[in-house]
Amino acid sequence: MEIVLCVTGSVAAVESVKLARELKRQGVEVKCFMSDDACNIIHPNSMEFATGQKVVLELTGAIEHVKYAQADLILVAPATANLISKFAYRIADNPISTLLITAFGYSTPIIFVPSMHDSMYKSISENIQKVKDEGIIFLKPKREEGKAKFPNIDDITLLTLRETSEGKLKGKKILVSAGGTYEEIDYVRGITNRSSGKMGLEIAREAFIQGADVTMVIGRIEVRIPKVFEMVQAESTKEMQRKLVELLPKNDIFVSAAAVSDFTLEKTLTEKADKISSDEDLILHLKPSPKLLNMVKKINPNILLVGFKAEHNVTEDELVSMAQKRIKTSGADFIVANDVSVEGAGFGSDRNQVIIVDGNTFTVPLTSKKEIAQNIIAKIVEKIR
Q: Minimal CA–CA distance to 356: which of 217, 382, 298?
């Protein structure tokens, strides 16, 4: 896969080096075009280093604007008000604007990542809308401190990978729960677990790359959620249940990767516990939490349901048996089961070892959660076809 990264004269051009390096880490070949104003901010050698290729600074007899116009994607990051407005009216007066007009004629996908003062962003809103109406993709900037700032590099990378993927989940809406729930004891203390949200995030990322519209329902997490996802926060099991009831009918796929508390308090204490009794034992009365997985198919019988089953220090046969029972009680299409006692796997880790259970079993040995997510999404794709 090859993309062309166009760097224009915004101060955010300093971020383009890191963006190019991240795209390279994701296996993308990057060719860079730079405007004269961009060269006043960063030296072309920095982009040559980042991409491993010569930077195009001017058009020559090699007709670079035609040669690279049919790349897999043209990414303009940062995109200035000047460049966006020139493209809106098809003004070709530099290598980048000429490349874009040529690429548009070939129907090559184009992404603009605006970066400028907020007043400028507002003033070219009509030009932005005109270009959007023509099918050009815009990634929303971070609007703060009176500026329309360069988005997070991870968000740009995700959108780039999405627009150059096979799009196996294009048109599908996927709901992913992630993180741990928190059951309040009083306004200071609570019952929770060690879930970090890493597995749920990797599943959401891979689904997004494959073209799905992604909504994440998150409890307590240790990861950043990309702005390209819809995000709904739900701290407690009860709150997560309420949010899922609202969202499940609107989605085609639900991956229940959150570590939902097995127990909740019968009654939340109204004062800080040690104020109630600082010298005596505190007895908490717990009751089982509702099994959220078991309610999913009742709310949306047509949804493709993926559940998770985490156990501690069990045999593989026991783990598979427990997963099969969970399929029967919930109606899940498949269960991802894992033993959190496996060294280097489980909660908070970047790696895991899982067994994917439906009518058959498929073991994914200890590997990155990213690779596990790719296996899970591949299984989902297989199920919906």
A: 382
DSSP E strand boundaries for 44-85:
73-79
Supply the pLDDT for residue 163: 97
Task: Output the pLDDT for position 188.
Answer: 84
The answer to whether 363 and 320 have CB atoms below 8 angstroms apart is: no
d(CA 354, CA 356): 6
| pTM assigned to the model | 0.94
334 shares a domain with 258: yes
In this prediction, residue 346 carries a pLDDT of 73
Number of domains in the chain: 2
Could you say which residues of the chain have pLDDT below 70?
271-278
Question: Does residue 136 sit in the same domain as residue 260?
Answer: no
Residues 154 and 251 in one domain: no
Instruction: Give the range of the structural domain holding residue 81, as residue numbers without chain letter.
Output: 2-163
- Would strands 304-311 and 334-339 be described as parallel, antiparallel, or unpaired? parallel
299 closest CA partner among 258, 254, 334, 333: 254
Give 109's Cβ-side CA count (13 Å radius): 15
The alpha carbon of 297 is separated from its chain's Cα centroid by a whole number of angstroms, namely: 25
End-of-domain residue from the set 163, 188, 222: 163
Relative orientation angle of helices 316-330 and 292-299, to the nearest 10 degrees: 40
Q: What is the pLDDT of residues 156-192, one digit of tens each?
A: 999 999 999 999 999 999 999 999 999 998 888 899 9
Going by C-alpha positions, the residue among 51, 50, 115 that lies closest to residue 82 is 115
Residue 184 shares a structural domain with residue 206:
yes
> Among the three residues 163, 188, 209, which one is the final residue of a domain in this structure?
163
Looking at this protein, which amino acid is placed at residue 77? A
- 3-class state of residue 146 by DSSP: coil
Cβ pair 215, 190 in contact under 8 A: no
The answer to whether residues 186 and 151 belong to one domain is no
Residues 377 and 342 in one domain: yes
Please tell me the total number of residues recorded for the chain in this structure: 385
